[in-house]
Write a structure and sequence with these properties.
Number of helices: 10
Radius of gyration: 22 Å
Structural class: alpha+beta
Number of domains: 2
Shape: elongated
Strand content: 15-25%
CATH superfamily of the largest domain: Regulatory factor, effector binding domain
Oligomer: single chain
Distance between the termini: 10 Å
CATH architecture of the largest domain: Alpha-Beta Barrel
Number of strands: 9
CATH topology of the largest domain: Multidrug-efflux Transporter 1 Regulator Bmrr, Chain A
CATH class of the largest domain: Alpha Beta
Helix content: 40-55%
Order of helices and strands: HHHHHHHEEHHEEEEHEEE
């Protein structure tokens, strides 16, 4: 099964169990992917988190029921996963701009979110510069933090971690220690699918380093792998977000490669990240599909 078909299978699973207690892990299992990699790919391709998609679809169906039936608001609140009618009404108004009672009276306009169907459009208008290389295992030095994948807490926490290391001097210390082949600070996503806590991930801010690792830093060994390394040009975070979407929507579907399920690396140079010509890289471990 191709990766597009796998993602679509997971989306179909969401739709078939939209009123059930869905978890990121159970959804990702349908795509034969880890919770982290499924969440990341889904967000890149759809520009929506998994949680937002589920919430929007549930409130879309709830609006249809309110408009077409005489079901009580309290019953619909429980049906669509809300603990109280007040929480349901608040979420309903946030999406539709009107309360459930106003919607029943045909006041205002309701927002309809259709179920997703993943399609690949091969554009190719903007060329991607990349190289494929093989590397033996290598060592990183840095700090790490564990993030929950539930409710996309990692998407909130990772930017805060970067803000912390850029203000407390950690990033400067890592830049001085950087003596490996990859030049720059690294953002490293480590999937924990094989471990007991499979709805968490580790995120590292690190640098490639050869030598003894002293406190307060930790070491991470990156296994030997084949890699595809993409050039990224432009200010952060827009340029790298755009590059990720292009990689998953254009490069992977036609490359003959699959993600090798090892840590991904984002490489940030030491220049001004707001510069229009800022240079960064995305390194993805790959294997033949």
């Amino acid at each position: 099964m191709g990766w597009i078909e796998s993602i679509q299978k997971a989306i179909d699973h969401i739709e078939e169990h939209l009123l059930d207690d869905l978890t990121i892990e159970s959804i990702a299992r349908q795509a034969n992917a880890s919770a982290f990699h499924f969440q990341r790919t889904f967000t890149i391709l759809t520009e929506s988190t998994v949680g937002d998609y589920i919430r929007r679809r549930r409130l879309t169906l709830a609006a249809q029921e309110i408009s077409c039936t005489n079901e009580k608001v309290i019953d619909l609140a429980y049906k669509y996963g809300y603990d109280t009618p007040e929480a349901f009404s608040k979420a309903f108004r946030r999406q539709h701009g009107v309360s459930p009672s106003e919607a029943r009276k045909y006041m205002g306009k309701l927002k309809f979110y259709e179920r997703l169907v993943i399609q690949v459009i091969l554009k190719g208008a903007e060329p991607m510069k990349y190289k494929i290389l093989e590397r033996d295992s290598f060592q990183l030095i840095g700090i790490k933090q564990e993030f929950s994948l539930i409710d996309e807490e990692n998407l909130i926490g990772i930017p805060k971690l970067w803000e912390q290391v850029n203000t407390d001097g950690t990033s400067d210390e890592l830049a001085k220690l950087n003596n490996g082949e990859i030049v720059g600070l690294l953002g490293v996503c480590v999937d924990k699918r094989a471990q007991e806590k499979n709805e968490t991930m580790d995120y590292w801010i690190a640098a490639e380093y050869t030598g003894k690792v002293d406190e307060p830093f930790l070491s991470l060994t990156i296994p030997a792998s084949k890699w595809v390394a993409f050039e990224v040009h432009g200010p952060m975070p827009d340029a790298i977000q755009k590059a990720w979407k292009q990689i998953f929507s254009e490069w992977f579907p036609t490359s003959g490669y699959e993600h090798a399920a090892l840590p991904e690396l984002e490489v940030y140079s030491n220049d001004d990240a707001s510069n229009p010509d800022y240079y960064s890289e995305i390194w993805i471990p790959i294997k033949k599909g």
